[in-house]
Amino acid sequence: MEFTKGHGTGNDFVILPDPDGVLDLTSELVATICDRRRGLGGDGVLRVVRAAKHADGADLAGEAEWFMDYWNSDGSFAEMCGNGARVFVRYLVEMGLAVPADSALPVATRAGLVRATVEGDAIAVEMQRPRLYAASAAALGGLTLPGTAVDVGNPHLVCPVPAGLDLAGLDLTRAPDVDPTVFPNGVNVEFTTAGAPVAGVDAHALMRVYERGSAETLSCGTGACAVAAVALRDIDRETGTVAVDVPGGRLTVTVTPNSCWLSGPAVLVATGQLTLPALRP
C-alpha cells in the first residue's frame, strides 16, 4: 500500500491514495497504521478517493472530484477535520491530482463540501460557520470547567481556563468527562486562554485540545474555528479574524457572515510503502 505522511501545525496524518475506492480499509487496520510504535504513527488516516467511488461522497460527486475519507487514529470516523482537509489539498496539488485556480478547490467531506485555496506555504479551507448552541462543562482531574458547545460540522466543547490555572499544566493524558446527553457521539474538548495582542487580528487565543478518537493532538483545525467563534463572541463580535496558537504552531481563523476560513501551513514529509502483512491485526 502506497502512503504519504503529512501534517498541519503538527496534526499529522497518513495519506492513502485510493482513487477507485478498492482498498480493504478497516477500523483495525487504521488503528494499527496510526500506532506510533507498531505502525507509521498519526492522528488519523486520510484516504484519497474519488467522490463518485465512495458511498459517503457520491452525492457531492457533481461538485467535487475528490472525497476526503477521514478516520481517527482509533479507527473511528469523524465528520470533518480542518487540518486534515488542508493536508488533503496539499497532497492533491503536489501529486498533480488538482490544479490551484482563481476559484477555490472543492473537496467533498462527510460534513459536506469545503473549498480550499493555496497561498504558498499556507492552505486555507472554507468550512461551515461555527454554531454556538449550548452551555456545558468538562471535568478534568478534579476540576469542572464550564464551556460552550460549538458545531463546526463536528462537535466541540470550548472551555476557557480560569485565571490562576496554567493551560500548559493541564493533564490531558486521559479524556475529559463530558455530559453524554449533550454530546451523545463524543466531543473534541478545547481548553483555551487569551493570548497577548497580535497585530492584524481581532483576538488572540491559546489552545490545547483532546480530540475524540485521537487523544491530545498538537493541533485541531475545527477546534481552532470553535475557539475563534467563542473568542469573537466574548468581545461582542459576530465576525472577525482570530490568531489561534496551538502546541504545533499558529492557525488563523476568519469568521464571516456565512462561513469560516481556516488558514495555516500544510506540509508533506514522506512517501513510501506500507507492508500490509506486518500491519494486519
The counted number of beta strands is: 18
Number of domains: 2
- Say what oligomer this is: single chain
Question: What does the main sheet amount to?
Answer: 13 strands, mixed
Unreliable segments (pLDDT under 50, ≥5 consecutive)? Answer: none
Query: What would the principal axes of the Cα set say about the shape?
Result: globular
H-E order: EEHEEHEEEEEEEEEEHEEEEH
**Hey, roughly how much beta strand do the residues contain?**
35-45%
Radius of gyration: 18 Å
CATH class of the largest domain: Alpha Beta
> Which CATH architecture of the largest domain?
Roll
Mean pLDDT: 95
- The end-to-end span amounts to 16 Å
Describe the structure in your own words.
The protein is mainly β and 281 residues long. The protein has helices at 27-34, 82-94, 221-234, 276-279, and strands at residues 2-8, 11-17, 44-50, 66-72, 105-109, 112-119, 122-128, 131-140, 143-151, 155-160, 177-178, 188-194, 203-211, 215-217, 240-246, 249-255, 259-265, 267-273. It has 2 domains: 2-118 and 266-279, Diaminopimelate Epimerase, Chain A, domain 1 (Roll); 131-257, Diaminopimelate Epimerase, Chain A, domain 1 (Roll). Strands 5, 6, 7, 8, 9, 10, 11, 12, 13, 14, 15, 16 and 17 form a 13-stranded mixed β-sheet that branches. Strands 4-3-2-1-18 form a 5-stranded mixed β-sheet, sandwiched between helices. A hairpin with a 2-residue loop joins strand 6 (112-119) and strand 7 (122-128). The longest helix has 14 residues, at 221-234. It is globular. The protein starts with a strand and ends with a helix. The mean pLDDT is 95.
